[in-house]
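Recall that a protein's primary structure is simply its ordered list of amino acids. Everything else, from secondary elements to tertiary packing, is in principle encoded there. The following example makes that idea concrete.
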Amino acid sequence: MARIMAVDSGTRLVGYAAIIDYKPIALGIFRSSRETLIERAVELGHLIANAVPYELDGIVVERPVIRGSSRYRPSDILDLGIATGAIAAVLAAAYECPVELWTPKDWKGSTPKTIDNARTAAKCPEAVALIEKTVLKTHRNHVYDALGIARAKEERVRNAKT
């Protein structure tokens, strides 16, 4: 039984999900309004650490990638990378367990977001009602991504044991 937490990081907002045997034990969204990028990232890392008071076997944080046809400015992607690193460092220190950085391709391949969200919902039905009830519609994709990342990590752990 693996206890996994995953984070869909951002520069002002993060989605997180912690699961045991595909069952969510904690999930949600945190937002920071601190002034500087590093202050926001550190605060977001601490907010997650305080919300998930469990011993964990592993943490995965989604890391950004630069795509040639991205609608985002390169400087925004760099800021996201800095925030991701800071969040990962705070979580590594708080939990004293391995932290991995995965790209979207690492956890969902080339599967479109809508299909992956449906698969995640099917594997974690307990989470769907909680997400729908507690997370603003405009932010749910961050929690679904975090849950999908955690699910993918747990599957890898299970497959490695067999």
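The chain has one domain: 3-161. Strands lie at 3-8, 13-20, 23-31, 58-62, 99-102.
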